[in-house]
Specification:
The protein is an alpha+beta fold. It is built from 12 helices and 17 strands. The strands form 3 sheets. Strands 1, 2, 3, 4, 5, 6, 7, 8, 11, 12, 13, 14 and 15 form a 13-stranded antiparallel sheet that branches. It has a two-stranded antiparallel sheet with strand order 9-10. The chain has a two-stranded antiparallel ribbon with strand order 16-17.
């Protein structure tokens, strides 16, 4: 069973009645253009106002009430639950003899609708930012029946239409998570908000848990080169009937940042030639890389890694090196427990070297040498870091541990992170060079991830014009491919 349309607007029925105490009899459920979910209710003849709730606390217009779960019932008696709801607006109005009007608006982190109490055997995650510069190797013919119902004056009409849909290209991957094997189909949808690049991740034969599905999506994001953003999930029973849906609020900044960031896979995932030339996907390459990332979850914690990595991908260029630096340090901290972090053995430094250094500082430094406001204790506090390896040196040690050459382009990219972290601003003529340093940093992190996971033997060098494919052991080439980094022009 393959999806043939985008479920973006397939929210619960527009008219719901609340199961909680509210002056509004009916609510509309909607997803707004900023990707947020809302339950909005208006009553034109509400009961008399009672500002005191059962807990004795007054609720006033605009008050935020965190952590509430709202229960609704559709006219069809389906259960609808809004999770982690915030009441952002509650107001009453009256003018010119009009009856009092009360409006409530609840912004929801997630919205769940249960249609049937059946066991799910099939599920689809509906996502944004599934790019398709490459050609999917599999095509699907989907046959869908759509039912439209209308009720008027107690009479119900139902109209059915059947539609065949060709050209649903997709990937078909067999992935193992927690010793369970799942058949996963990934592809673009043919309807919906096309500018946000909608797609689906489908699980056939068995339904992974929420944590397993998240790990699969995150690993696919790395493998395909772009962050997949979940907006809803559909569950189906053995007969193919929809039994439950869950919709998730997202932020406009996250979605537009991910989409505008473009596609940048870590390694060449084309079947032949370059991925830049619009060739076929190599299904086995993607399956292998995705599986390796899944297998490395205990070491790398892919959820946290994705948070750092794709935040850097969608952030503004001015702070890109600093955010990529956080990604690199996160990876290094996860795997460097066996690597040296100090120049002197800790016990020897603490018991022998540091006391001698403290005595020397106290003997050499007179008050007349200190700047205004400084104390000898301030100098002594610096000794806490005296024996530690610098961050750049730790990065070099990590690369050597992984068998990766550490060249001048890598050094320049790591050094660049300090500038935005310490408030440096860039001039217009700097941005071309800054962009090259950001690309170099991204390629450096890609090399490390691929080496740690053993996901591929080559990486794409985004620091070099034309984005060539290089062996993992080969260092970054810089703009001209000669191993020299981009240099800022003097302003």
């Amino acid at each position: 069973m393959m999806p043939d349309e985008w479920k973006w607007e397939k929210l619960p029925s527009e008219i719901c009645r609340p199961e909680f105490e509210s002056p509004c009899d009916f609510f509309e459920i909607e997803r707004r253009s900023d990707f947020s979910l809302w339950a909005c209710g208006t009553s034109y003849d509400p009961p008399p106002r009672d500002d005191e709730e059962e807990d004795g606390k007054s609720r006033v217009p605009g008050q935020r009430i965190e952590g509430e779960t709202l229960e609704f019932k559709e006219l069809s008696e389906c259960a609808v639950t809004c999770y982690n709801s915030l009441r952002l607006d509650k107001e009453r109005q009256s003018s010119c003899g009009e009856p009092n009007q009360v409006t409530e608006k609840w912004r929801c982190a997630a919205l769940e609708r249960v249609l049937r109490d059946d066991e799910p055997v099939h599920a689809i995650d509906w996502v944004l930012n599934l790019r398709h510069e490459l050609i999917f190797p599999r095509a699907t013919d989907a046959d869908t029946d759509v039912s439209h119902k209308r009720r008027r004056e107690g009479i119900e009409w139902e109209r059915m239409r059947s539609r065949n849909q060709d050209g649903l290209d997709h990937l078909s991957l067999s992935l193992v998570v927690n010793e369970s094997e799942y058949e996963v189909n990934v592809g673009c949808t043919t309807g919906g908000p096309q500018k946000w690049l909608p797609g689906f991740v489908e699980y056939a034969g068995a339904v992974p848990s929420a944590e397993e599905r998240r790990l699969i999506r995150q690993s696919l994001s790395f493998a395909l080169g772009g962050e997949l953003i979940l907006v809803s999930t559909s569950w189906f029973n053995d007969d193919g009937w929809l039994i439950k849906t869950r919709h998730v609020s997202q932020t406009f900044t996250k979605v537009i940042g991910a989409v505008s960031g473009g596609t940048a896979p870590m390694t060449n995932i084309a079947g032949s030639g370059s991925w830049l030339d619009g060739n076929l996907f190599d299904e086995e390459k993607i399956r292998q890389l995705t599986q390796k990332l899944i297998d490395a979850d205990e070491l790398l914690c892919v959820d946290e890694l994705k948070r750092f990595y794709f935040l850097a991908r969608r952030t503004v260029m001015d702070v890109g090196p600093a955010v990529y630096g956080s990604s690199f340090e996160y990876i290094r901290d996860r795997i460097e427990h066996d690597l040296p972090t100090t120049l002197i053995e800790k016990k020897a430094y603490r018991e022998t070297v540091r006391p001698a250094l403290e005595a020397a500082v106290k003997g050499l430094v007179d008050d007349e040498f200190l700047c205004p406001g400084a104390t000898v204790e301030d100098l002594l506090s610096k000794l806490s870091y005296f024996h530690k390896i610098s961050l750049t040196a730790q990065s070099r040690v990590l690369m050597e541990h992984l068998g990766l050459e550490f060249g001048d382009v890598e050094k320049a990219a790591l050094s660049e992170r300090n500038h935005p972290a310490h408030g440096r601003t860039y001039q217009d003529e700097h941005y071309d060079t800054l962009m090259r340093h950001v690309r170099a940093f991204q390629s450096l992190i890609n090399r490390v991830i691929l080496a740690v996971t053993e996901g591929a033997d080559t990486y794409i060098d985004y620091s070099t014009d034309g984005f060539p494919e290089r062996s993992l052991e080969e260092p970054l080439g810089g703009p001209k491919g000669d191993g020299k980094p981009a240099v800022f022009a003097e302003s």
